[in-house]
Amino acid sequence: QCFDANATVAVPNSLGPGELLVRYGTPEQKEYFLPRLANGTLIPCFGLTGPHSGSDATSLIGSHCVVQKHPKTGELGVVATFKKRYITLAPVAGVVGLGLNLQDPDGLLGGEGEEGFTVALLERGHEGLRMGPRHIPLSAAFMNGTVEGEDVWIPMTSILGGQSRCGFGWNMFVECLAEGRGVSLPAGSIGAARSVVAGVGAYSRVRKQFRVPIAEFGGIQEAMAKAGSDGLITIAGGDVMNAIVDNHEAPMVISSVMKQNCTERGRRIVECGMDVAAGSAICRGDKNYIGNAYMSLPIAITVEGANIMTRSFQIIGQGLTRCHPHMSDLLRALQLPPSQEKEAVQTFVKQFHKIVGHGVSNFFYSVTRGIGATMSTTFRSKKAYKSGNDLLSHHEKQLLRLSANFALTADLCFTLGGRLKFEELLMGRLADALGAIYLGYATLHHYQRRQGIQGLEALTEHAMLRLEREAQDALYAASENFPGPLGTVASTVMKMGCFPLGGFTRPYAEPGDDLTKEVSRLLTTPSEIRDMFQEGIYSAPEGTTHQMTDLIRALPICVEADRVATSIRREKREPTSEETDLIAKADALRDALIQVDVFEHATAEEAQPGYVRPALLGTEERFAKMDKIVFREAA
Question: Are 471 and 287 in contact (CB under 8 A)?
């Protein structure tokens, strides 16, 4: 219903310092801040990004503090200088969680706390703290601005968690950002998906061109089917991520996948909706229910780590080592002190053998599953998805195959060593593959939970075919462009393992036209699939004007009127009085719902008495110099 409300509510619930206070705050901090945050007395914000630290926010360039004693009281604290920007809710926030790079050159911490990333809690009005100036992100109205200060005194009691938590900010940052990126931002895309399917799906039946609902046009069907399957993918991914967070987990890699993948899909969903709604989507006003989302989605793409960085660096850069079953233990062995050299060598050799064995098994599974999955895909009926059990069984096998392909490729990435972090094209492709695989499992999980919704098989099949094709194409592109001194060898091994029979073992294709038409039909006519998408959609009270609500309510009337009109033509008969009334009602609804807003003036200047638009004024001035100023006189 409102992107700005989404941003305003999401930040305090996922990106603000509230949860950090619950987990790490001192008893005094919890007692003071939590009740005020819970009842809305204090609006929170989190100040991390600075002018020289965007996607590399934790570098904290320009935001530092030094441990000192207060010159008058002797109280231990820090003197901080910081310059933050892009801070959502900062112009109206009552408390800010501030990321600072803490230094202790005089050793005043005395072993309690460490140097490094530290979070401070400052209330509005704190001496030296400046909050209030705002940015204007595109057309959005939510508050976003700067947080600045020079030589600001901050007592240790205002360090989140107290002195013992100095230097602990990275852990706080990871947990806070993981939930914000994984829940709040994808939720915006889920809302966009529901809105496009509900509103634009109805519009495509209400709107007629060449006396036919545009929902019957192939191009419209393609756009609606893509929007629908991308919408299902984001909803399914959101369900799994929410369950993970409910289980008190904060998986950084999965949250990065969710943020990058779902916001990108959200953008594509809204673009499809804009293409279908066309002129009604570009004219501003109360009747436009999609234009603001179109203009606001680049904000979601950009914030909390720009997608281009998240995809090409963070997902694989952070996850490759930590997610490997043996690599972390091997690296820890290398970091053991000289006094534990014997233990380190034994551990290293043991883990190295495990890594080699893991790679060999991945190669074996990649080959065998690849051939098996190819055969099952090649000889599978295009209608097999109608059996829910076959749908789950078949696509789970494909995801197991793709998972083995990805695991083999990840093992080969270790041949790059430290150079991997500079091979962002490779990491971006692997991020695409990982995202498609993860969201594929989420989509199957969603189907298993919601099985029984009529038409869900077709929509799930459409989504899974697209995800499998995405993963296949990403892995193939990686095999064609594997970098590094051993790139040729790694590329050959990857192709042998992932695609042992060449192009034959790349069987995944985009959904066929029949499936696309079926999915589009489900999304543009009254169906249980539409009911699923409309869950949580705002519905205005009867008798009030609200474009999306009116479209949704008009859909069954227009569909029934079209059915009746078709029946009358086929039977070559006159309509009954009831049929005439139904068709007239549908025509009246159509005429009302395709209208767009028109304004006498768009700016305060245009509203001034006697205002003449510059172009008209120029025309009048030119005509004043002519003898004949209208066509009749010229003729």
Answer: no
Burial call 306-315: b when 16+ CB within 10 Å, e when fewer: ebebbbbbbb
Q: Are 135 and 85 in contact (CB under 8 A)?
A: yes
* CA–CA dist 364, 476 (Å, integer): 18
Contact 509, 461 (CB under 8 A): no
What does the alpha-carbon distance between residue 373 and residue 190 come to, in Å, rounded to a whole number? Answer: 31
Question: pLDDT value at position 106?
Answer: 92
Dihedral in degrees, nearest 10, Cα atoms 14, 15, 17, 18: -10
Cα–Cα distance between 482 and 493 in angstroms, integer? Answer: 11
Average pLDDT over residues 526-537: 95
Q: Shortest CA distance to 324 belongs to which of 442, 432, 412, 247?
A: 412
What is the crossing angle of helices 252-277 and 424-450, to 10°?
80
49 C-beta neighbours (distance < 10 Å), count = 22
Structure tokens at 16: 């603000």
- Please provide the distance, in angstroms rounded to a whole number, between the alpha carbons at the two ends of the chain: 56
Say if residue 633's pLDDT is above 70: no
């019957």: which residue's tokens? 216
* Strands in 316-379 per DSSP E: none
Q: Which residue has the tokens 């995944």?
A: 508
Where do we find the tokens 């009048």? Answer: 620
The whole-angstrom separation of Cα 352 and Cα 565 is 73
Query: Which residues contact residue 424 at a Cβ distance below 8 angstroms, ignoring those fewer than 6 apart?
Result: 312, 313
The pLDDT tens digits of the residues spanning 347-394 come to: 989 988 998 999 999 999 999 999 999 999 999 999 999 999 999 999
Residues in the chain, total: 635
Indicate the pairing of strand 44-47 with strand 208-209.
unpaired
Q: Does 60 or 206 have the greater pLDDT score?
A: 206
Which among 84, 91, 216 is positioned nearest to 147, based on CA atoms? Answer: 84
- Whether 469 has a pLDDT exceeding 70, the answer reads yes
Q: How many CB atoms lie within 10 A of CB 230?
A: 28
pLDDT tens-digit profile of 22-66? 889 999 999 999 999 988 899 998 888 888 877 666 677 778 999
What stretch of H or E contains 117?
strand 116-123
pLDDT greater than 90 at residue 141: no
Residue among 607, 236, 131 nearest 453 (CA): 236
Report which DSSP code applies to 541: P
Residue that is written with structure tokens 């008495």 in the block = 609
User: Which pLDDT score is estimated for 424?
Assistant: 92
- Bridge partners of 159, per DSSP, are 120
Average pLDDT along the chain: 91
Among residues 19, 175, 222, 304, which one is catalytic?
Answer: 304
Report the alpha-carbon angle 29-34-39, nearest 5. Answer: 150
Number of Cβ atoms within 10 Å of the Cβ of 371:
15
Q: Are 176 and 23 in contact (CB under 8 A)?
A: no
How many Å apart are CA 440 and CA 216, to the nearest integer?
A: 29
- Distance from chain centroid for Cα 420: 26
Query: Could you confirm whether 304 is annotated as catalytic?
Result: yes
pTM: 0.91
For the residues of 364-393, what is the DSSP string, one character each?
HHHHHHHHHHHHHHHT--TTGGGSHHHHHH
